[in-house]
Amino acid sequence: MSLDVDAKKVLLRKIPHGLFVCGVREGDEVNGFTASWVTQGSFEPPLVVMGVRADSTSHGIIERTKRFSLNMLKADQKDLAAVFFKPQKGLGGRFDAAPFQDGPLGLPLLDGVIGGVECELVGQIQHGDHTVFVGEVKTAQLLEDGEALTMASTGWNYGG
Ligand SMILES: Cc1cc2nc3c(=O)[nH]c(=O)nc-3n(C[C@H](O)[C@H](O)[C@H](O)COP(=O)(O)O)c2cc1C
C-alpha cells in the first residue's frame, strides 16, 4: 500500500493552526522564529506541544537549555509573524521588528502582543525532519486579550 502524497498534502493542510513567535535564549543569545505547529497537550500540568525544524538554530538551543517561550500574536500582526520566518536575533531587549522583555525564566516575551508563556521542556520525540517538543507552561503573561492570528487568515501554508 503506497501513500497518496497529493491526498496526504491536501488533508494535512486541513489541520487548523495559529501563528506564534517562539523565543529562546542561551546565555546572551536570544532568538525568535515563527511557529505554527503548536497545540495544547494537557490541562494538568498545562502542556504545549510544538514541532520544530531539526536543523534550525532554535532547535539546538531548546535541546540545550530545555526551555522556550511562545508569544501569541494579535489577529492583525501578520507582518510581525513574517519577520520571524528568518532567524531573528534579539539584542538589548529588542528584535529588529519588535521589543521584548525577559520573562521570569529569562525568555523573550514580546511587547504589543496578546501575551506569552514560558515553558520548561518535559519531553521530546525526535523522528523525521521536525522534533516534537513538549513544554510545561511555567509562566503566563497576558498583556491584552483579543483575537489571535491564525494561519487561515494569512493565506500561508506550512504543512502537508
Ligand atoms: C507560515 C510558517 C509557519 C512556520 N511554522 C514553523 C513551525 O511550526 N516549526 C518550525 O520549526 N518552523 C516553522 N517555520 C519555519 C521557521 O519560522 C524558520 O525555519 C525559522 O527561520 C527558524 O529560525 P532559526 O533557524 O533561527 O531557529 C514556519 C515558517 C512559516 C513560513
Task: Summarize the structure in words.
Pfam families: Flavin_Reduct. The chain is 17% helix and 41% strand. The protein is built from 4 helices and 10 strands, in the order H-E-E-E-E-H-E-H-E-E-E-E-E-H. It has helices at 5-12, 57-65, 78-83, 151-154, and strands at 20-26, 29-35, 38-42, 47-53, 67-72, 88-90, 100-102, 108-110, 115-126, 130-142. The chain is globular and about 55 Å long. The chain starts with a helix and ends in a 6-residue tail after the last helix.
- Cα-atom Rg, whole angstroms? 15 Å
Under CATH, the homologous superfamily reads Electron Transport, Fmn-binding Protein, Chain A
Number of strands: 10
Looking at the chains present, what oligomeric state does this protein adopt? single chain
Label the structural class: alpha+beta
How many separate structural domains? 1
CATH architectural arrangement:
Roll
What features would you highlight for this structure?
160 residues; alpha+beta; Pnp Oxidase, Chain A; eight-stranded antiparallel sheet; two-stranded antiparallel sheet; 4 helices; 10 strands; 17% helix; globular; binds flavin mononucleotide; NADH-dep_flavin_reductase
